[in-house]
Amino acid sequence: MSDFVIITDSSADLPADLVRKLDVQVLPLGFVMEGKTYHDYPDHRDMDPRIFYDRLRKGELATTNAVNVAQYTEALEPLLQAGRDVLILAFSSGLSTTYNSSRIAVEDLRERYPQRKLYTVDTLCASLGQGLLVWYAARQRDLGCSIEEVRDWVEDHKLNLCHQFTVDDLHFLKRGGRISAATAVVGSMLHIKPVLHVDNEGRLVNIDKARGRQASLKALVDQMAQTAIDPGSLTVFISHGDCLEDAQTVADMVRKRFGVEEIVINYVGPVIGAHSGPGTVALFYMGTER
Question: Does the pTM of the predicted model rise above 0.90?
Answer without folding.
Answer: yes
